[in-house]
Automatic annotation (TrEMBL):
The keyword GTP-binding does not apply. Residues 23-428 form the Aldehyde dehydrogenase domain. One of its GO terms (cellular component) is cytoplasm. InterPro entries: Ald_DH/histidinol_DH, Ald_DH_C, Ald_DH_CS_GLU, Ald_DH_N, Aldehyde_DH_dom, Aldehyde_DH_NAD(P). One of its GO terms (molecular function) is aldehyde dehydrogenase (NAD+) activity. Coiled coil: none annotated. This is Aldehyde dehydrogenase. One of its GO terms (biological process) is aldehyde metabolic process. Keywords: NAD, Oxidoreductase. CDD domains: ALDH_YwdH-P39616. The keyword Membrane does not apply. Belongs to the aldehyde dehydrogenase family. The active site is at E212, C246.
């Protein structure tokens, strides 16, 4: 414990030297990080296969490729982001100049989950480095092979008084990390339940926090949807990483008139993508551990299975599974599924669908499949949610120009691209006044000046 506090104090001291502030320093660190990731690309891929059965192609799309692309974009735009941004000056302050001045927050703590263990730790790290901060990184303990390689990357690339890697069991380590030291920001990705603990700990020290949480993201398929495309895109995203994705469609709301046709398309697509025996598929993942495997098996219990349902505990395998219209009172409709089970629920009217969505308010994402633009806009406005897509799912995550984050239950704050830089910066509002003219109107005595003041202000 004393050792940990000494480490954290050393980080604070390094930050106070101002060494992280110059743009060149930040870019150099990002370049070093890029080189290390490239060096460890194969090791990371093997580790992610061992932890979650991810193929090297999937690792590139959802983990390493994303992170490298974020580094490139950051390096390219950093000078523009760091530059003071002029804003108009109000009448009483003319001829002064007003501008926004971003500055680093200080020492930030980043906590990551296990489902994309590399990407979800390194994406916020890039933003924190770009914004000129020192960082403490807490990876998930549930993906040990990846945890080990990430530790090697960080230790080889950065001095521990700049970026400290702190692996360990969350329930034990996080209180140690957070009670002993005041961070300038905490960035947490994980479950809503643990998010609440983190938020309380941060609040105790008045530390601002970004929370990237989970929830039940609905996917609406209206009678005007192109069903073949909808089925392909839904199956592709829902069963990627065996459904262990925060922005995966949690359940489908399908207009009654197209429900049977969509189910046929979903079944055919699952067969096409993963074959008769998905357990042998190159593209199909595994559940992270026995605890989650059992949780998912329990969620299936008593449900009508339209497709799939096979499972193998030894291999932590659960087949892509379609469930027919579970009751809204069933656990599978009350908690985030976070696995390869997809409830398909019919609806007759928009009001009925909306009432179902409202049972799990503020989802992280919302997806609408329809060819009717007005209908799409209607749904985008009806539901409060973090971010989403029309006629596809999860792909908004890949666009760095869109802020990524939840709302209330599903999160607080946003990141990716410039939004990450802003999350890890404090934006100072600055007015630079002139010493001439020095108008007497604003000085005491104000007596008798009301008429003029009313004109000016
Ligand atoms: P988790 O909350 O169990 O763990 C996340 C982190 O918190 C880990 O580093 C863990 O060590 C730590 N932790 C666990 N228990 C703790 C405790 N009692 N006290 C303090 N720290 C603790 O989450 P998870 O199971 O790793 O991830 C799954 C959840 O994360 C899902 O709900 C999913 O939707 C969500 N998620 C959200 C996003 C997003 O970007 N919004 C991305 C991925 C996952």
């Amino acid at each position: 414990m004393a050792g940990l506090i000494n480490h954290l104090n050393a980080i604070r001291s390094f930050f106070n030297t101002g060494g992280t502030r110059p743009s060149d320093f930040r870019k150099q660190q990002l370049l070093r990080l890029k080189e290390s990731i490239l060096k460890y690309e194969e090791a990371l891929s093997n580790a992610l296969f061992s932890d979650l059965h991810k193929s090297k192609e999937e690792v590139w799309i959802t983990e390493t490729g994303m992170v490298l692309s974020e580094i490139n974009a950051c390096i390219k735009s950093l000078d523009e982001w760091m530059a003071p941004q002029p804003v108009p000056t109000n009448f009483v302050n003319i001829p002064g100049k007003s501008y926004l001045l971003p500055e680093p927050l200080g020492v930030v703590l980043i906590i990551a989950p296990w489902n994309y263990p590399f990407q979800l730790l390194f994406m916020p790290l890039i933003g924190a480095i770009a914004a000129g901060n020192c960082v403490v990184l807490k990876p998930s303990e549930l993906t040990p092979a990846t945890e080990k390689i990430m530790g090697q990357i960080i230790a080889e690339t950065f001095a521990p008084n700049y970026i400290l890697y702190a692996p360990g069991e969350g329930a034990v380590l996080i209180p140690e990390l957070m009670d002993a030291f005041r961070y300038d920001h905490v960035f947490y990705t994980g479950s809503t339940a643990v998010g609440r603990i983190i938020y309380q700990k941060a609040a105790a020290q008045l530390t601002p926090a970004t929370l990237e949480l989970g929830g039940k993201s609905p996917c609406i398929i209206t009678r005007n949807a192109s069903l073949k495309v909808a089925a392909k895109r839904i199956v592709n995203i829902k069963f990627s990483n065996a459904g262990q994705m925060c922005i995966t469609p949690d359940y489908l709301l399908v207009h009654h008139s197209v429900k049977e046709a969509l189910i046929r398309q979903l079944k055919a697509t699952i067969l096409k993508f993963y074959g008769e025996h998905p357990i042998t598929s190159y593209d199909y993942g595994r559940i992270v551990n026995k605890k989650h495997f059992n949780r998912l098996r329990n969620l299936m219990e008593g449900q009508t299975i339209l497709h799939g349902g096979e499972h193998n505990e030894e291999q932590l395998f659960i087949a892509p599974t379609l469930l027919d219209a579970p009751s809204m009172e069933a656990p599978v409709m009350k908690e985030e599924i976070f696995g390869p089970l997809l409830p398909v629920i019919g609806y007759g009217s928009d009001e009925e669908a909306l009432a179902r969505i409202r049972q799990n308010e503020n989802p992280l994402a919302l997806y609408v499949f329809t060819s009717d633009k007005k209908e799409a806009d209607h749904w985008l406005q009806q539901v409060p949610f973090g971010g989403g897509c029309v006629n596809t799912a999860a792909m908004h995550y890949l666009n760095k120009n869109l802020p990524f984050g939840g709302r209330g239950n599903s999160g607080i704050g946003r990141y990716h691209g410039r939004f990450s830089f802003e999350t890890f910066s404090h934006i100072k509002g600055i007015l630079k006044a002139q010493t001439w003219p020095d108008i007497p109107l604003a000085y005491p005595t104000l007596k008798g000046k009301l008429k003029t003041l009313k004109k000016v202000i």
